[in-house]
């Protein structure tokens, strides 16, 4: 009667029965997910991924995604968003001053309009950051980046373990 031990599949965490006839470095396939593993015999029987190529491909795709997400986050932080609408408000202010108050277009009016543009742009951008979409987008991107980096670390660990046998 042949004895066997159980080890967990790295991919799906299902128990894999490993007969004692399998030696260090032999390959065995998980019955649940079909992932091929190498056997590592030591104090405790372990299974590591037999072919790390798909893991390396997944790691590269993950790194590309992290780079894209970080670029999106930089773009979102640097964007003017609603703040650019301050220019429109400044134009409306100039038109109102000229049309309703019968003011002439002058350097003083242009400086006032510039002040309106800057003040309203800053106000709108702060409101956008504190209450609206920009803050939510930055938060979502930060969460996605953290998850992707965590996944990268797990893939790197599996690749290192596969290379040890």
Give keywords.
165 residues, alpha+beta, Rubrerythrin, domain 2, 2 domains, 3-stranded antiparallel β-sheet, two-stranded antiparallel ribbon, 5 strands
Report on this structure.
With 165 residues, the protein is α+β, with helices and mostly antiparallel strands. The protein contains four helices and five strands, in the order βββββαααα. The strands form two sheets. A three-stranded antiparallel beta sheet has the order 3-4-5. Strands 1-2 form a two-stranded antiparallel sheet. β1 and β2 form a beta hairpin. The longest helix has 32 residues.
SSE layout and pairings?
Blueprint: E1 4-8, E2 15-19, E3 27-29, E4 36-40, E5 46-49, H1 53-78, H2 85-100, H3 107-131, H4 133-164
Antiparallel strand pairs: 1-2, 3-4, 4-5
Helix pairs in contact: 1-4, 2-3, 3-4
Shape: rod-shaped
The DSSP helix count reads 4
Strand-and-helix sequence, N→C? EEEEEHHHH
Q: Report low-confidence residues grouped into runs of 5 or more.
A: none
The largest β sheet comes out as: 3 strands, antiparallel
Q: How far is the N terminus from the C terminus?
A: 28 Å
**Radius of gyration computed on alpha carbons:** 30 Å
């Amino acid at each position: 009667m042949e004895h066997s031990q159980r080890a967990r599949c790295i991919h799906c965490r299902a128990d894999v029965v490993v007969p004692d006839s399998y030696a260090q470095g032999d390959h065995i396939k998980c019955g649940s997910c079909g992932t091929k593993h190498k056997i590592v015999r030591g104090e405790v029987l372990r299974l590591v991924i037999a072919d790390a190529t798909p893991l390396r491909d997944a790691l590269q795709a993950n790194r590309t995604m992290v780079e894209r997400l970080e670029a999106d986050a930089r773009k979102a932080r640097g964007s003017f968003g609603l703040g650019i609408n301050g220019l429109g408000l400044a134009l409306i202010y100039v038109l109102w001053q000229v049309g309703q108050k019968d003011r002439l277009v002058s350097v003083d009016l242009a400086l006032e309009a510039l002040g309106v543009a800057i003040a309203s742009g800053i106000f709108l951008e702060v409101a956008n950051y504190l209450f609206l979409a920009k803050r939510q987008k930055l938060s979502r991107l930060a969460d996605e980046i953290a998850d992707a980096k965590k996944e990268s670390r797990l893939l790197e660990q599996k690749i290192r373990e596969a290379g040890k046998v």
